[in-house]
Amino acid sequence: xxxxLVLIKPDGVARGLTGEILRRVEAKGYTITALKxxxxxxxxxxxxxxxxxxxxxYQPLVDFMLSGPTVAAVVEGDRVIEGFRTMAGxxxxxxxxxxxxxxxLGRDWGEKVQKNLVHGSDxxxxxxxxxxxxxx
Length: 136
Ligand code: ATP
Prior knowledge:
By secondary structure, the protein is an alpha+beta fold. The chain has a single domain (2-135), classed as 2-Layer Sandwich (Alpha-Beta Plaits), CATH 3.30.70.141. The chain has 7 helices and 4 strands. Strands 2-3-1-4 form a 4-stranded antiparallel β-sheet, sandwiched between helices. It binds adenosine-5'-triphosphate. Adenosine-5'-triphosphate binds next to loops. Major role in the synthesis of nucleoside triphosphates other than ATP. The ATP gamma phosphate is transferred to the NDP beta phosphate via a ping-pong mechanism, using a phosphorylated active-site intermediate. Keywords: ATP-binding, Cytoplasm, Kinase, Magnesium, Metal-binding, Nucleotide metabolism, Nucleotide-binding, Phosphoprotein, Transferase. InterPro entries: NDK-like_dom, NDK-like_dom_sf, Nucleoside_diP_kinase, Nucleoside_diP_kinase_AS.
């Protein structure tokens, strides 16, 4: 099996959706092997979003991620990297499919940053890198 880093971003925590999102992860059959609530540091976010540095949404994204606590989880399961991203839905909540986390629950969209409730790693390499950032 595989593992991935899932983040419930500050909009998800602030809206009280932590339980609903983790319920979906568990109901699918994935295993949560580590879980914590954290106030992200600028250094963590610079590392986590290194690939986006220099893009127009980078600073709004970092400011949003600093705006409140995030819940970080290590989630394990068969093909969980692709599977969780399918559960999350596409980046923009406006057009994410019904049945997905973003499609069912996402409602905050804007030009500067997509407040899209969750993050999931996109490859085995990024999962290991991101787990080290959030769990040391
Ligand atoms: P996904 O690729 O499914 O969106 P992700 O969270 O890995 O997942 P990234 O492309 O890595 O998405 O972008 C990181 C985050 O930056 C997005 O989740 C979103 O919050 C924000 N973002 C990405 N692209 C844009 C954009 N064009 N405008 C505003 N915010 C964006």
